Amino acid sequence: MLASELLGSKWLDEHKDIDITGIAYDSRNVLPGNVFVCIKGFETDGHKYAEMAVKNGASLIVAEDKIDVDVPVWYVENSRVEIAEMACKYYGNPSSKFKLIGITGTNGKTTITYLIKSIIETAGMRIGVIGTNQNIIGDKVLVTQSTTPTTPNALELQQLFAEMVDSDAECVVMEVSSHALELERVHGCHFDVGVFTNLTRDHLDFHKTMENYLNAKAKLFKISDKGVVNFDDDGGKKIVANNDCDILKVGLS
Known about the structure:
Helix content: 25-40%
Structural class: alpha/beta
CATH topology of the largest domain: UDP-N-acetylmuramoyl-L-alanine:D-glutamate ligase
Strand content: 15-25%
Number of helices: 9
Largest sheet: 8 strands, mixed
Number of strands: 12
CATH superfamily of the largest domain: Mur-like, catalytic domain
Strand order of the largest sheet: 8-7-6-9-5-10-11-12
Shape: globular
């Protein structure tokens, strides 16, 4: 794929014919012709490894901060958003080729994911699963290098979606963590249905406040056509009040 195809009008004309062979954010995984995306993590910063990426064959660098390397550099405001958008394009926007269901909430995501899997399989449809326990399509287990246990990073997520398409998935159900929503891992995905289970105290080392935590979860319903929300939960009531998508309210009360 040419740089102009991957980056569109954002990229400079003099570099539009650079041949991109893949995308990487770990310099150790860079192959000749790859674009390397510098991502600022919680323990390290990808900008520190741009030179190593070039030594390993990167033909293009995407960065937020100024770096000095011997290949073209494209500077962006948010490299997490850009890698998600590039991955969608590189793999042909695979999530648009099946029904996508996302499950968010503090507890119950895995359980509900497998309940939905069972229901859809009983209806005779081929479904893929992405979540904490495993990534599967039918009986086939899909392996990813992602270090994020619940929702893979944007690049690995699009790779998994592409494998789901190749395996004739009609539907994919996935767990969507608050971290994934906050850190743009599902940027570029559009969900047919978003599901909210509940909100209890967790992950405040990252989100700092329960309000921030809920706001992260609520982002799923900004990118979903329909929602199914636990209306017994106070967080669910706030999600319903602040979102415009078509929401089905469920609960014991």
